[in-house]
Amino acid sequence: MKLGVKLFLAFSLVIAALFIVSGLSLRALNRLVAVNRDISTRTVPAVRRAAAINDAMPALARLEAGMLVLGDPRYMTRWQERAAQVREEIIGLGSFLTTAEQEARLHRVRETFTAYERVVAEEQALVRQGLRERALILAETESSPLIERVESSLGRLMDDIHSAALTAQAEASRLEGRTWTGVFMALGGAVGLALLATALIVLRLTRSLGALSAATAEVAAGSFRDPVRVQGGDEMAELARSFNTMAERLREMNKLKETFIASVSHELRSPLTSMREAGHLLRDEVPGGLNPKQARLVEIVEQGADRLLRLVNQILDFSRLRAGMLAIQRLPVFLDETVRQGVDELRPQAQEAGLALEMERVGARFDYLGDEDRLIQVIVNLVTNAIRFTPRGGRVMVRLIDAGAEVEIQVEDNGVGIPALALPRIFGWYEQAHRERGGTGLGLPIVKGLVEAHGGRVTVESQEGKGSRFTVLLPRGSTHP
Fold first, then answer.
1. Which of 146, 197, 372, 464 is the most exposed, fewest CB within 10 Å of its CB?
2. Which residue in 29, 33, 35 sits closest to 180, CA to CA?
3. How far apart are CA 348 and CA 304, in angstroms?
4. What is the C-alpha separation between 258 and 222, in angstroms, rounded?
5. Contact 363, 333 (CB under 8 A)
6. Which DSSP helix (H) or strand (E) runs through 145?
7. pLDDT tens column, 55-64
8. What span, in angstroms and rounded, lies between the C-alpha atoms of 407 and 68?
9. Mind listing the pLDDT tens digit for each residue in 276-300?
C-alpha cells in the first residue's frame, strides 16, 4: 500500500470518527432540546391554565352567592361570562396534556364543571320563580360539593403536570450529563485514534529512514555488508529496494576495482623487484665501473623502484586486509627490540629531513605474542608519516609503555598536525589530511587493520599546528604460542 494511501486512510478514519462524534452529539443535543421545548411549550402552559381554572372557581362561587342572596341579574351575567372563560380554559388545557392519566383527570374536571353549570342553571330558574330558599338549599347541597370536586380534580391534575415537569427536567439533566460524557469520550477516542494512526505512520517512516541513514553511513564508510530490510510496498519500501540495488552495484564495482588493483600490483611486483636488484648490481659495479653521472642515474632508478615497490606492497596489503586474508603469525617477540628495529630503519630518513628521531621506554616488561614483521610495518608506517609531516628542526618521539594488561606504542611529533574536521576519517581508505604532501592514503588504514588483526586498537590525538600523537594499544594476553 502506498504511503499516500496510508495517510489518506488514516486521516479519513480520523475524520469519520469526528463525524460520528458530531452526529452523536447532535442527536443527543436534539433530544435535550426536545425535552426542554416540551417543558416550555406544553408543561408550563398546562400548569398556567390549570392554575387559572383553579383560581376562577372561588370567583364563580362568589358570583353565584351574590346572585342568590341579592338577586341582582348583573351577577348572573357576570357568572355566565366567567363560566364561559373557564370552559374555554378547560378545553384549551386538553391540548397541553401529555399522558392518558392527565387526560382522564381533565375529563373528570370537565364533567364536574358541566354538572356545576347545570346546577347553577337550576338555581337561576328557581330565583326567577321567586323560590330563593330552594335555590340556596340547592347551592349548599349540590353546587358547593361540585366546586370542591373541580378544585380537587384540578389540584391532582396540577400535581401530575408538575411531577411530569420534574421528571422531564430530571431526564434533561441526565441526558445533558450523558451527552457531555459521550461527547468527551468520543472526542477522546477520536484524538487517541488520530494520535495512534499518526504514531504508527511516523514510527514506520522514522524506522525506515533510520535504517536507510545507517546504511548510507556504512556505504559512505566503504562498508557494503547487509542489505536494508524491505517491508511493505509503499514509497519507503521502493526507496529501500533502490538503495539495496545501488549498494549491490557499488559493492560489485568496488570488488572489481580491488581485484583490478591487486592484479595489476601483483603483476608489477616482479618487474619492479628485478629493476631494483638490477640497480643494486649496477650500483655495486658488478657489470663494470660507473662514472659519477651514471652512478647518480642508477641511484635515481633504484630509489624510484624502491618507492614503487613499497606502493605495490601497500596496495597488496590493502587488498588482503579488505578481503580478510592477511595472515598474522603469532610468535613470542620482545616489542622493545621490534620497535628499535623499526626506528633504526628510519633513522637515516629522519636525519636527511633534519629531524630528531628518539625512542623511549617506560616500564620493564615488553614480551608479546604477535607477528614481528607486521608490527615493524606498523611502526615504520607511523614514523614515516610523522617524519613526512614534521618540518625540519622538529622532533619525533617513539614511546613504548608497559601498561600492565596492554602494551602501548606512541608515535608523537611536533609537526603540522591534523585538521579537526579530518580526524574522524583519518583511518579511512584513501583518506589524507594533507594531500599536497604526497602519499597514497593507505598507510593509516593498513596500520589500523594490522593492529586490529592483533586484537588491539589505535587512536589519534592532534592539534593543527602543534603536532600529533598516534597510540597503538596491544592487549598482552598470553605471551606463549
1. 464
2. 29
3. 18
4. 12
5. no
6. helix 144-220
7. 888 888 888 7
8. 137
9. 666 666 666 666 677 777 777 767 7
